[in-house]
Amino acid sequence: MQDLIRKAMLDGIELRQQCTEPLLKPLADAADMMVQCLQSGGKILVCGNGGSAADAQHFVAELVNRFEMNRRALAAISLTNDASVMTSIANDFEFNAVFSRQVEALGRAGDVLLAISTSGDSPNVLKAMDEAAGLDMLNITLTGRDGGKIGLHDGVSVHINIPHASTARVQEMHITCLHILCTLIDERMFGG
User: Fold this and answer.
1) Residue 192: per-residue pLDDT
2) What is the pTM of this model?
């Protein structure tokens, strides 16, 4: 058991070290886009499935409430929260439309869609990105492995990719990236 624990910890450390330099620019660019959106009166919509749905909710909670400083609430919506909306869309249309219908209803030009997918191939996330691009929203993507179809999407403004095969290690880095984005947004908008 201790060997498994040690391996998980050391793999996570190694992945953080490998990702540090390659993620500097995309994280800074994503934070800049989010700050510009929020300062212009826009909002950030966030979607993902499974663990990525939980990450979407976590990120939105940090923006709407607070991260590490008390400041005004920021406009962000997790598209994974409303079971009635999601199940009605899945029932009346298809599960692949659960995020795109919400983007259609809530998204406006200049808003940001943060699309999270560890595989990079989630069809409902891709469909949300299509809808966002059609509305002149910005698409920021957070993916794993090789980035998949989401990383190749024409509408991607910033692609943050964690090039690792393990879903667990990718998700650990995703939450790190989301916390870094929270820090950057707070610092840019409200200072230290």
Assistant:
1) 61
2) 0.96
